[in-house]
């Protein structure tokens, strides 16, 4: 990746961080502004300062909870910077959850807070709900205003370009507007026309397929555009930044040689340490639940409590994965579990729905056969079936995990086509794996289990 491309990607990432920062700072201001307005409505100016002093400390603690729930609900993502029903729905659900948790916190910690507001909390929540929602709408209009969006030229004929253009058209808050699209090969004789179009349309960014840059004549033409201050971004990198997955159909083996690191020693040591610590803590937390589930399985269906199954791990090595048994014994059937699978026991259905059948895998983490975060290990039969997918073996250069990027961003695969889509997220994780991304996956997993699990 060239320095120019790297700078363009950094600018895109900075743009996203700037948006998140603005949303966050706005929420902080609206939280305290809503509290101020609530107390003025309730007590008037005469008693405002006394009431504000009494409410400031407890509400400041509650605000941390509110910000966390908003974050877990993805409301600091630019995809919610638009006025639609989905934004309103998610925002309303988050406010409702925050009200419930705030009531619980005020009553649980009454000796510390020294107040249990009911009417004030309701008024505050209504004011913040309206203010927080419209703050996002205002920011959306600000970001798509003239001069905020970068004008983009795309060079290439890849099928995913149409998909990217449609996505940017429907999501103007991303900050990019496709102004020109050149499908035919670049030629020297058309350079004056090309440079004139770039100047006239105020093009700031060129997105191009990697093979075009490898063509010497096309590369020379693109090089001559650099003095115009144009940023050059590879199509695969731009796709990855937009969708947090890699465009497998567009990649060649050279991309993997350049982009995939097979070993990151310091990261792997730190990750293994965290795996051991967190799995020990979770084992202690879940111990009463583990005992209860074991009794339920034992007394509601015949067969073992723990189900053992061979899965494929790092470097294609098989290992035994442990789960609570959710199916009737001696039942064979399809490789994929259907939504209303007759093989599931009554307790098994509950365990599958809540993912509590995964608890015994904490032992797998302690053993080191899997990590807390990574691509989900597949059954040997499925792994063999999926091996026909291009680049499938790349997901096996790292340890599999209890939860992963693909699981959070795509539904469970029930076909080879869906497995290929899911593989794009797995390879994104392999390429970008870090402690920061692992922490983000943990937060998103908590959100999925407690907020958005369906």
SSE layout:
Elements lengths: L2 H41 L4 H25 L12 H24 L1 H4 L5 H25 L6 E6 L3 H12 L5 E7 L8 H10 L4 E4 L1 H5 L1 H8 L7 E4 H9 L9 H7 L5 H21 L1 H14 L5 E7 L5 E7 L21 H9 L6 H7 L3 E3 L6 H7 L14 E3 L1 H5 L6 H17 L2 H18 L2
Question: How would you explain this protein's 3D organization?
Answer:
By secondary structure, the chain is of the alpha/beta class. Helices cover 59% and strands 9% of the residues. It contains 19 helices and 8 strands. The strands form 3 sheets. A 4-stranded parallel β-sheet has the order 2-1-3-4. A hairpin with a 5-residue loop joins strand 5 and strand 6 (318-324).
State the main characteristics.
four-stranded parallel beta sheet, alpha/beta, 8 strands, flat, Rossmann fold, transferase, membrane, Bact_transf
Helix and strand run: HHHHHEHEHEHHEHHHHEEHHEHEHHH
Structural class estimated from helices and strands: alpha/beta
Strand order of the largest sheet: 2-1-3-4
Count of DSSP helices?
19
- Helical content, roughly? 55-70%
Beta content: 5-15%
How far is the N terminus from the C terminus? 40 Å
Question: What are the segments in which pLDDT stays under 50 over at least 5 consecutive residues?
Answer: none
Radius of gyration: 26 Å
Question: How would a textbook summarize the main sheet?
Answer: 4 strands, parallel
Averaging pLDDT over every residue, what do you get?
86
The coarse silhouette is flat
SS elements, strand count: 8
How many separate structural domains?
3
């Amino acid at each position: 990746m060239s320095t120019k491309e790297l700078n363009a990607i950094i600018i895109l990432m900075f743009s996203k961080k700037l948006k998140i920062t603005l949303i966050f700072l706005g929420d902080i201001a609206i939280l305290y502004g809503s509290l101020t307005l609530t107390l003025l409505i309730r007590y008037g100016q005469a008693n405002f300062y006394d009431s504000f002093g009494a409410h400031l400390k407890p509400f400041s603690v509650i605000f941390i909870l509110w910000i966390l729930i908003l974050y877990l609900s993805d409301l600091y993502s630019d995809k919610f910077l638009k006025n639609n029903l989905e934004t309103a729905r998610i925002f309303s659900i988050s406010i409702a959850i925050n009200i419930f948790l705030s009531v619980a916190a005020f009553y649980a910690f009454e000796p510390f807070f020294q107040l249990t507001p009911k009417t004030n909390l309701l008024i505050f929540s209504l004011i913040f709900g309206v203010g927080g929602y419209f703050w996002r709408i205002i920011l959306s209009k600000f970001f798509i205003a003239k001069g905020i969006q970068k004008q983009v030229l795309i060079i290439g004929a890849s099928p995913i370009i149409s998909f990217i253009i449609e996505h940017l058209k429907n999501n103007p808050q991303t900050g990019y507007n496709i102004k020109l699209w050149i499908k035919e090969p670049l030629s020297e004789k058309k350079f004056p026309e090309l440079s004139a179009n770039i100047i006239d349309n105020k093009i700031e960014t060129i997105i191009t397929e990697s093979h075009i840059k490898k063509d010497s004549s096309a590369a020379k033409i693109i090089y001559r555009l650099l003095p115009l201050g144009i940023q050059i971004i590879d199509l695969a990198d731009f796709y990855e930044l937009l969708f947090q997955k890699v465009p497998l159909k567009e990649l060649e083996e050279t991309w993997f040689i350049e982009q995939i690191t097979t070993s990151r020693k310091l990261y792997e040591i730190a990750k293994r340490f965290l795996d051991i610590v967190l799995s020990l803590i979770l084992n202690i937390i879940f111990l009463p639940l583990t005992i209860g589930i074991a009794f339920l399985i034992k007394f509601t269906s015949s067969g073992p409590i723990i189900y053992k199954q061979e899965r494929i791990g790092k470097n294609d090595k098989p290992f035994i994965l442990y789960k609570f048994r959710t199916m009737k014994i001696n039942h064979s059937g399809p490789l994929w579990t259907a939504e209303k699978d007759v093989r599931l026991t009554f307790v098994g259905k509950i365990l599958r729905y809540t993912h509590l059948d995964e608890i015994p895998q904490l032992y797998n983490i302690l053993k080191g056969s899997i990590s807390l975060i990574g691509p989900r290990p597949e059954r040997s039969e499925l792994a063999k079936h999926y091996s026909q997918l291009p680049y499938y073996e790349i997901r096996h250069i790292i340890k599999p995990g209890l939860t992963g990027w693909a699981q959070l961003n795509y539904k469970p695969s029930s076909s080879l086509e869906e497995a290929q889509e899911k593989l794009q997220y797995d390879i994104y994780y392999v390429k970008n794996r870090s402690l920061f991304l692992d922490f983000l996956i943990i937060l998103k997993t908590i959100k999925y289990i407690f907020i958005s699990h369906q």
